[in-house]
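Fold Annotation — chain and its backbone

Encoding — discrete vocabulary of local shapes
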Amino acid sequence: MPVTTLDGHQIHVNDEGFLTDPNEWDDSLATVLAAQIGITLTDAHWKAIRFLRKDFEEQGETATLRRVATVGGVPIKELFALFPQKPAKKMAYISGLPKPQGCV
């Protein structure tokens, strides 16, 4: 697995840039990852990110958009506004989690 350094964080990533070890993630890394894709994190972003991290710990896989909306309580329309164009992929990337299954 490739290793890269972002803002002083040495992290293991896959070919698409997703972290391969979710334990390497922290809030400051999330801010750096978000900035790399042009997103400035707000409280609304953190609500989705915190849900994804917690759900991943409990379920062992990255939540889909539908799950974030129905279980996490963040409407899909809001997710598209917060993480434009590819919300599931961008949320997973910023959250330091694998890309959700079925996400291209």
The chain has a mean pLDDT of 93. The CA atoms of residues 39 and 65 lie 18 Å apart.
